[in-house]
Amino acid sequence: MEYILRHFHKAGIVSWLYAIALFHAFHFFGIHYLDSSFLEQFLTQSEVGLLYATSSLLSLIVLASSVIFLTKIGNYYTALCATILNFFASLGLATMTDIGWLFVLFVVHAISMTVTIFCLDVFMENYTKDENTTGSVRGVFISMAVLASLFSPYISGTLVGTSVDYGNAYLMSALYLIPVIVLLIARFRTFNDPTYKVLSVATMWRVLCTNKNIFHISSAQFLLRFFFSWMVIYLPLYLHLRIGFSWKEIGIILFIMLVPYLLLEVPAGIIADKWLGEKELLFTGFVIAAFSTAFLFFLHSESVLVWGGALFATRVGVALIEIMTETYFFKQIDGNDTSILSIFHMLRPLAYAVGPFTAGLFLLVFDIQYLWLVLGGLMLVGVFHSYALVDTR
Prior knowledge:
The protein is mainly alpha-helical. The chain has a single domain (2-388), classed as MFS general substrate transporter like domains (Growth Hormone, Chain: A), CATH 1.20.1250.20. Helices cover 81% and strands 0% of the residues.
């Protein structure tokens, strides 16, 4: 934590990006684990998965066209417009009484949030030129999200309460975007856009296939996002409906689960910059994530601490995967490579389109607890991609 504060103090304009990342992460994680349960008030479990998949596919299309927005209106206005759209969509979800608006509001919320995250990375990549500090800078940037992810699920669980009123959590989530909008206007309206490299989708695909390191690190990132797509949708449902935890108890479990991000990501980024490189830590992360996730299949305890501890173990592996994929990827590109950057960001909506669809098909045949066994097996594929990377040290 002391390192984060020192780095924040020295970071200059980047420190304002850290602040934006913090507030945006409170918005994101404030409803991240509630979305599936909120939607299930109006839709069936299959329809929830379909809505996730649809919004993710549309996000994918928008991200594929992102360089067009950047060249036409610039990164600042793209980020500002997306955040304002997200603010009103989140307010709409908080106060929604007509199910007819559910699809529109949720899709606008999902797309605009994805675009804002992409724009923040464009800002960060243009303000961070020294590859020897990429790991530590990305570590602090992600740690802002981690701080929010630790506390916001508990806050949201408390706001939902025993009466199960999701509107309070969505309203709070919308309010977190106000500081993001203010800071963007106050600090980034004079942002000097670089000359963005415009690549066609076909060219992006060729880059992905011909650059071995970009391919393998993108594959590792896709596996990570696929992991999240199943966990975010089905873990809250499993804990709430199958195990029987209240939302307040789930908030405590999620707090425990997310602690490894805070403990590991900044130190791991520094270690990757100065000593080991990313390959070894990424390999270790996939091994830990695979076996700890598969273990959930065998867990039937109704103890908050037992579940918190088991999920803590999964996030030890996932925290290493997240910071290593981010650090390695951003060492391969510069601030002009927005088309390649968009490939990296397209992996999240792609995973969130493929993940719910495959899980929905799987659940037609198997019980929900088998998801953890399959997901653990899929994470072992990441071991191959880790091993195939050319290390940076």
